[in-house]
Each structure stands twice: as C-alpha cells, then as structure tokens.
Amino acid sequence: MDELKIEVELRIEPDGSVIFADLASDMLAVREALLADPGEPLACEVPQRNKETQE
Amino acid sequence: MSHFTKVKTTIRDLDCLKEALKALGYDSSVIEEGKAIDIVDYYGTHHTVQVAIRKKNLKGFLGQWSDLGFARQDDGTYELIADNMRQAELSRWTAQLTQQYALNVVVKTSAWQGYQAVEQETMQDGTIRLVMRQW
To answer: What ipTM is given for this predicted complex?
Structure first.
C-alpha cells in the first residue's frame, strides 16, 4: 500500500515574509518560529496576486 | 477558497542566522558569537552584540565604515547594528539575509514535524517557492 504523503507549499518573499497556503496544523510551529511574538493571533488572508493563488 | 497567511519574519534563532550569513558568503571563521561582543560604529560608539563580523571581514559597502553585529533585544529578537550610510544597499542586504534566514527556519522547524523540502525554486521576482512533503 502506498504511504500517505502530505505536501505543503510555502513562498518566501524577497523581504523574508513567508506565505503559507491553507495553514496546516503541522506548520503552526514553523509560523511560530518566524514570529517575534509566538502568541500573536493567527492573521490575515493575503490578497490573491496571480492565477496560482486563486481557487 | 484557499486561505493564505502571511508572516513577517523576525530573527530569533542564532543558528539559522549564522547559516544565513554563511549563505551570503561569510565563512564561520569570520562570524563571532558570544554573550557580549563589543563592536564599534563609524562614530566611535560601542555596541554590545551577540553575533558580529568585523569591518575587515565584511564585503562590499558593508565593510566601508564599521563592524556589523546583531544585538539581542528584551523580546528575544535580534536587531542588526550596521553602517547605514548607504541605506538602500543596506536594506537590500538585510532583505536577502532575512529571506535566507526564513528559509533556514522553515526547513529546520518543518523537519521537526517530519517534512522534507522536495522542491525549491527562485521565481522571477525573487520569491522562493518551497514544497515540503511529510512522509
């Protein structure tokens, strides 16, 4: 039987900001590691910029 | 509809910071690390930092005037102390460093969750696209 593989795509912008698509619970630790204040509330939706970011 | 979350990166992990400096061409032999390293800026003012690169080892515009360092703040983040005579170039360099730092943090932290990077590409606008896979 094939193993279940989970893929997550991220983008790291030229200024170092990181964009998570459909923030998976596994990635919350990554998000927290990037923030100054790990307790900061989960934020915003980013405006969609191109075809790849549209539904 | 897909939801996108944008996180502004702040520097908190010294190991990832040192790896980012290496990626920008600074060998570990020129990166000093310690609890209280003294560096001096162009005006002769002393600063206490935890990571430093001496002026003689800095490349390009960075090495013109002063040492460079990262000073730990009360909230656990690190602030860059550097010559800002050429603000535009310094901003570009800081962005490159932060992007490389973010890449290191993403790879390191997601590895703890069982993810490995399986695709990495730099897009035309400089954005790094990364696909992580959990096995």
So the answer is: 0.87
Q: Are B81 and B69 in contact (CB under 8 A)?
A: yes
The residue to which tokens 């989960």 are assigned: A42
Chain A hits for B113, Cβ within 8 Å: 26-27, 29-30
Residues B26-35: tens digit of each pLDDT? 999 999 999 9
Q: B88 touching A, CB under 8 A?
A: no
CB A31, CB B5: distance < 8 Å: yes
User: Contact, B98 vs A15, CB < 8 A?
Assistant: yes
| Among candidate residues B76, B98, B90, the one with its CA nearest the CA of residue B21 | B98
The residues, ordered by sequence, that sit 6+ positions from B40 with a Cβ below 8 Å of its Cβ are B46, B47, B66, B67
List of E strands, chain A: 6-12, 18-21
